[in-house]
Amino acid sequence: MAPVRNARVLMNEYPTGYPEPGKTTVYDDSQTIDIDNVPLNGGFLLKTLVLSIDPYLRGRMRPTGGYTPGFPLGKPLLSYGVGVVLRSETDKAKAGDHLYGQFTHEEYSVRAVLGDLAHIEDKHGLPWSVYTGAAGMPGQTAYVGWKEFAKPKKDDVVFVTTGAGPVGSFVIQLAKADGLKVIASAGSDEKVAFMKEIGADVAFNYKTTSISEVLAKEGPIDIYWDHVGGETLEAALDAADIGARFIECGMISGYNTGGAPVRNLMQVIGKDITIRGFIVSRSFGKYLKEFYDTVPEKLAKGEIKYREEVTHGLDKVGDVILGVQKGTNKAKAVIHVADG
Amino acid sequence: MAPVRNARVLMNEYPTGYPEPGKTTVYDDSQTIDIDNVPLNGGFLLKTLVLSIDPYLRGRMRPTGGYTPGFPLGKPLLSYGVGVVLRSETDKAKAGDHLYGQFTHEEYSVRAVLGDLAHIEDKHGLPWSVYTGAAGMPGQTAYVGWKEFAKPKKDDVVFVTTGAGPVGSFVIQLAKADGLKVIASAGSDEKVAFMKEIGADVAFNYKTTSISEVLAKEGPIDIYWDHVGGETLEAALDAADIGARFIECGMISGYNTGGAPVRNLMQVIGKDITIRGFIVSRSFGKYLKEFYDTVPEKLAKGEIKYREEVTHGLDKVGDVILGVQKGTNKAKAVIHVADG
User: Fold this and answer.
1) How far apart are CA A6 and CA B15, in angstroms?
2) Each residue's pLDDT tens digit, A127-139
3) pLDDT tens, A33-51?
4) Which of residues 217-256 of B touch A (CB under 8 A)?
5) CA dist A331 to A53, A226, B140, B288, Å?
6) What is the pTM of this model?
7) Cβ–Cβ contact A38 with B under 8 A
8) CB distance A229–B261 less than 8 Å?
9) Does B57 lie at the interface with A, CB-CB under 8 angstroms?
């Protein structure tokens, strides 16, 4: 077969504010690849099927990176994804295997080693995209964060931010499964409806409703799941009960502004608050088997609900990244690159 | 005996910035008390010996209080103190008993009930003032905070702020007893010398030396003991190692400014940091016996070192409160009210 297009998305310029499609990142379709003959040198050829676009990517769009290293200029972006092995010279990954992990933003890539890529099997008829969402890193984040750090007690009140997103919506369902009262916020009325559908007792649109007023009425809160930081974290600190647990999963209000200030941290002293930050990879190991044994099946049966917004084509990556930073995406953002 | 003076220090006006002696608080010596005949109504008459002036008092100088209620205007201040019972109509407190706890800023007071006041005995020849410092609330704060939240591991590096104060100096000695490397900061060269004397491996004057530079050279840090908040907390977050524990004991940089902003809280996520705030009274119960059984003796023998700056007279309370807020006090600030 003749060489085919191998389009890529490259890191082009570090943004100071919001990332700009076509400037921060550029779509490049100038390269080709000879799928049948490209040398593998003992490795394997991977075809990208799905790429996950998540809020934390903004942190990598700087020279020093966020909690993961910065993307080098002129090189493809990296994000979680699912792909299928087309050819292989290693028994670590056979043709036809599906792999999940960090993918370069390319239609095809040759990998020397399996590295951190994990084999996934779809036993329940879920789209591969779900393995980057509710059954992937975001779902794992919700799962381990809740199991390790929430320490739920009877009659606790939980406040979940970004409650319609892939992490937040999972957290709402974990909290409801534990019998707690859940307050949840998101940025559109349509997201509010989804949060109610999955069980939130109080769901509100933070763009039209005062967070402080909702928490004053429905709190005090015992558990806070943070994806926002800044003023939202301040409101949660003011509304916290003594002994509250704050689970710090993200702080998007500061990602594009150099960090959003928090002025009332003093509340952690007066209220004996524990703030626990985490990234999923350091804590997930002990839950891995339990997660894959139970979560995909529950997702397939509808016992855990999820939503995703699928955009087709690598050329849309820049727009979707911006949408996720601004919160204009409607659900878990995934890029469909190819079937397979 | 004829009535004698019963001087008091009253809350007069809530400050917006630093408290102003004579305006924020006023000394009032217009009242008298007939020690022999004042009716006790089943309670007891207490003579104030020592009052403790601590940083947290600033939080009570507002209508809503800090993590303790606000001081009512026109009423005496309250702080930890030691006093002796002069007369009593209850067997809960006999004449000659020494009591420790929250004292009104008055030379004499009639108490209806013992309440939270605790009996103290001095078996080791310590001044009563020490029972408001290293053997009182500040020492207890260091003790319970370290035992409950520091989770020291071999080769950990600790950064202690306000390391010459009654809490910080105790923490330095607890950390050294656990074999850790201790970095400590304070606001004068004389305090730096004291921190070295009690074992700090690296001691520096934050007014003349860059905190960030010291931590970059001597860190990363695994445990941070915070009395300062604001920019110092930001520097500690930047210098923290993965899995660091931050013990939030005070945030004086914000007490007189309405709260000092922290802009890099995002570090708690990338570094899996735990921030734990606490006030001593909620956690100390289980350590109370152990503390009083061991600490006063070690203080008397010089096995735990402490320093105090004693100021004589209730009329100096306003000045000493201001000094503690500005850090111009040289050591644990106590007001000597009377011998006894």
Assistant:
1) 67
2) 999 999 999 999 9
3) 999 999 999 999 999 999 9
4) 229, 233, 242, 248-251, 254
5) 11, 18, 50, 52
6) 0.93
7) no
8) no
9) no
